[in-house]
Design goal:
By secondary structure, this protein is an alpha/beta fold. The chain has two domains: 35-129 and 278-345, Bordetella uptake gene, domain 1 (D-Maltodextrin-Binding Protein, domain 2); 132-273, D-Maltodextrin-Binding Protein, domain 2 (3-Layer(aba) Sandwich). The protein has helices at 48-59, 81-89, 105-109, 165-177, 190-199, 209-221, 251-259, 266-278, 292-307, 309-319, 329-341, 344-354, and strands spanning 36-41, 69-74, 97-102, 124-129, 132-137, 155-158, 181-184, 204-208, 225-230, 233-234, 240-241, 282-285, 324-327. It has a six-stranded mixed β-sheet, with helices on both faces. The longest helix has 16 residues, at 292-307. It starts with 35 loop residues before the first strand and ends with a helix.
Amino acid sequence: MFERVSLRLAAIILGFVVVPRVEPVFAQQPFYKGKSIRFIVNFTAGGPTDVFGRLIAKHLPKHVPGEPSVIVQNMGGAGGVIGGNYVYEAAKPDGLTVGVFSGMYLPQILGGSGVRFDLNNMPVIAGAAETSVVYIRADSGVKTASDLLKPSKPVAVGGFTRESNKDLAIRMALDLLGVPYRYVTGYKGVPELRVAIQRGEINYTSESLTGYTTGGTLLVREGTVVPLYQEGLLGPEGDIVRDRRSDLPSFNEFFRKAVGRDPSGPLWEAFKISGGSRSMLRFIAVPPKTPTEPVQILRKGFRDTFEDPEFKAESERLLRFQLVTFVGEEAEKVNAAVFRAATGPAREALKKMTQE
């Protein structure tokens, strides 16, 4: 279901045809000289997608010829769909607007309301794989896997939209475990979910690894929440595997501890689709019809940024882990593999869940 993707390809070499001229004044200026690149982040400020985007924005300019400035603009709402639609249909295809997205796959795959973007029709610059961590309020009495089967308080799940991967992954896991829950959706971003957790409006949600290490762990240290498991990634053999950057068990390992057997059935196959989307949780793309020249320049700039020792050091300090990234053709392959995985009865099971 999921094609093995190498983590390193040969670097893309940008060549410029130099036409001999007598007068040096005619020398070609770098494409991005004197320009600004705008990152459109499809979730609110302070959340994990925002942290990810701003980290890259800080280091990218020195790796792009002409050293353009990079401005981050947050465009949250509708589970990330508003920002995705804007980059797809409203932003100019001039190489100056870059979408920095999360959670885009399932809204498109499931035909979510309001979705007008097409990830297969946007030049992909880069992407990053990242698991999510599920936690519950400490006053629920849940400390172990078996505790979740009989919590002392009813489970109240918080999320973004019915079609978002966050919401579906949490709900599928609870359904597989046979745990009843109340479902509250419509939050704009992770910061809003954290506030809801603190107020007791909800007591169960998830955060990407970036969000968890930069904010969620504060709730753990305060004793507000207890981390339960990581949702995992879709491995090359089509199974859910643990993201080794987290010590938490994957959901299938957690399920085994709670129930005493492995998860199975159509809903489990559907859960694997959500794992595929986490294999490209961060999706960086430009508007359709963006010319080849800026696309190639940006791809090389992102590749060089990800390999920059200063960027890696700050990632380790800020995120407490190293990013697993894909650039250019690598990212295109992962993107195609995610859509291939999302077919058949499992897709229908997901679609049915969005209507419940």
